[in-house]
Amino acid sequence: MSVNTTDLRFVTFTLLGVPGLESFHSVISAPLFIMFICSVIGNPLIVYIILSDRGLHAPMYVFLSMLAITDFMLSLCVAPQMLAIFWLNSQIVHFSRCVIQMFFVHFLSYMETGVLVAMAFDRYIAIRQPLRYSTILTGPVITRIGLVLVARGVFVVTPCVYLVARLPYCGHEVINNSYCDHMTIAKASCGNFTINSIYGLTQLILAFAFDVSAITFSYIFIIKAVLKLQSKEARSKAFGTCSSHVCVISFFYIPVAFTVFAYRFGKHIPPCIHSLFSLAYLQMPPMMNPLVYGFRTKQIRDQVLKMFHKGKN
């Protein structure tokens, strides 16, 4: 029996997890669980350290706090449902819950890439205009940047809710993944999802192309400025402050690029590969970001060591 778009409260989806690898779900869940634990411990720890140490209230660490909060929320949005599928075989999700998850997955992904752009801009100002750094990136300016990122995410993702709600669903909705996103919901419908595909690809290309271009140009100017420094020690320190950010960018954009383009153009790639890469792009950055900044940022590393020493005493 077909279900009308007016009867969306009766629509459910079956999430397959990693299709084709169902017998390995318990094995796949182990690294995902470790990633989840690292994220929900590491990211709040980063925020706590930054808030508790007045020496870490510089713009760079404010943006790092934004990134940690975004990563923490992304993990909570996706990982518990993934683990429920892998451990409890809890595959059925109602339409409203699936759409809410879709909204936050996309919104938080846009927040993540937006914060990475803001952090690149922060490093650009710190290296190109070190004497004006604190006067350019003031508290109100950082607040406005944060609000713009939130507004952008809401503006870009909200149409996706309407676009999936307008599609007809026929009672056999299956999603070849362990979470809901725009195109997996659209492809699970029994209607024409061409508009969804066009909008999804267009907004991804526009948003990510802008963000990647902004980061690239920032680092071109950063490298030029660093190479002009006379002191070898100063050049090494400048590159060191950027290396953590470059690592974090790689962890986020490489899986995203593969997932987006392979999902739309890689028709011969097995569904399990699509699913595994989409899991990586959602779970790896929230785990790796606090580890990278915790180990490579001396001020944060020192605070973590102090906390462990206090705990032992």
TrEMBL record:
Gene3D superfamilies: Rhodopsin 7-helix transmembrane proteins. It holds the Pfam family 7tm_4. Keywords: Cell membrane, G-protein coupled receptor, Membrane, Olfaction, Receptor, Sensory transduction, Transducer, Transmembrane, Transmembrane helix. SUPFAM superfamilies: Family A G protein-coupled receptor-like (SSF81321). It comes from Pyxicephalus adspersus. Residues 42-293 form the G-protein coupled receptors family 1 profile domain. InterPro entries: GPCR_Rhodpsn, GPCR_Rhodpsn_7TM, Olfact_rcpt, OR51/52/56-like. It is a multi-pass membrane protein. One of its GO terms (molecular function) is G protein-coupled receptor activity. Belongs to the G-protein coupled receptor 1 family. Odorant receptor. This is Olfactory receptor. It is found in: Cell membrane; Membrane.
